[in-house]
TrEMBL record:
Classification lineage: Bacteria, Pseudomonadati, Pseudomonadota, Gammaproteobacteria, Oceanospirillales
Keyword Transport: yes
InterPro entries recorded: MetI-like, MetI-like_sf
The protein's name in its UniProt record: ABC transporter permease
Pfam families documented for this protein: BPD_transp_1
Length: 327
């Protein structure tokens, strides 16, 4: 609302009412929805009994989240103590013999829940960026040429619905055969997860980019012809700005798919990450396992939500149409 309109409404006390209504819409309504969900979850959990005990409610999940954080802190203390002992031992050795050969060993303790969150985030972002580097340029080229669009659209539609569970065995075999090194830069499990994520998430970005580019206004294309812009200048000045909304729609879809695919791939292939954590807790079968799995489920959902919000912020930042409402 403009400043002039606000000045006109101020004597009638309507500005305060509008601010209150905006506050209710922004905070109270979402909080009400969350409280209703927690109430239904708590009631439902009390009536579900499994072989591992009662299904965890919000209180049990909160308790297990504190336990997982405490485990992480204890593991970091063990790591710090390990490196301190190593430094002290090397210092004593050098004091006796300045020419002595000292060794530095990496800490090989158990990966904590927090560590596996970090591993999953690194893997999904690497796979997503790799897919985007392929999908956006390919989508632009395909979208600018109707013949290429007609040729590749069936291929895109063919591979778009393929499950990561189908890709994973093939990717694992190919990586094992081709990625052979005595001192690899990346672990095979990381490369396998990265390629699987990329294969599954590049299609929405590729398709949306192609559609966005092919839907550019004829007037803009005519302006480009009148100005005699080169192909590269036409792409940078006309095509990409016009197709930004569709490109980011594809990127947001791809990032969400990448996050879902990664969890499934980690669970099936036992690659390090949140998926492996969930599977290990399921196999563990302790009385705390269900609560710890629910913590992972909530964290997976929160991370997926935050990744989508970050993409939305980037879209608002780079989009030329600032009046467009994005959700």
């Amino acid at each position: 609302m403009s400043s002039m309109a606000l000045k006109l409404l101020k004597p009638f006390g309507l500005v305060e009412k509008l601010n209150l209504a905006a506050l209710i819409k922004a905070l109270v309504v979402p909080m009400t929805g969350i409280l209703i969900f927690l109430f239904i979850w708590n009631i439902g959990a009390r009536n579900i009994h499994t072989s591992l005990g009662e299904f965890p409610g919000p209180a049990q999940v909160y308790e297990q989240s504190k336990n997982l954080l405490a485990e992480h802190n204890r593991e970091r203390q063990k790591e710090a103590a390990f490196y301190q002992r190593q430094d002290d031992r090397n210092a004593k050795k050098l004091a006796k013999n300045p020419d002595a050969e000292i060794k530095f060993r990496a800490y090989t303790g158990k990966a904590t829940f927090i560590d596996q969150i970090g591993t999953s985030l690194v893997t999904v972002l690497a796979g997503f960026f790799a897919a985007s580097l392929i999908a956006i340029p390919a989508g632009i080229v395909i979208g600018l040429n109707k013949t290429l669009y007609s040729a590749f659209n069936p291929v895109i539609q063919l591979f778009k619905p393929v499950s990561p569970l189908a890709w994973l065995p093939l990717v694992t075999m190919v990586v094992s055969a081709l990625y052979v090194s005595d001192d690899p830069m990346f672990a095979k499990s990381f490369v396998t997860s990265l390629i699987t994520v990329s294969l599954c998430c590049l299609w929405p970005t590729l398709l949306n980019t192609a559609v966005g580019v092919s839907s550019i206004s004829a007037d803009l294309n005519n302006v480009s012809k009148v100005l005699r812009l080169s192909w590269l200048t036409h792409v940078i000045k006309i095509v990409i700005p016009s197709a930004i909304p569709m490109i980011f729609t594809g990127l947001r879809l791809s990032l969400g798919i990448a996050w879902m695919v990664l969890i499934a791939a980690e669970m099936l292939a036992q690659n390090p990450g949140l998926g492996k954590f969930v599977w290990d807790e399921f196999q563990n079968g302790s009385s705390n396992s269900l609560g710890r799995i629910m913590v992972a489920v909530i964290v997976i959902g929160l991370i997926g939500f935050m990744l989508d919000r970050i993409m939305l912020m980037l879209q608002k930042k780079v989009s030329w149409d600032k009046t467009q409402e994005l959700r």
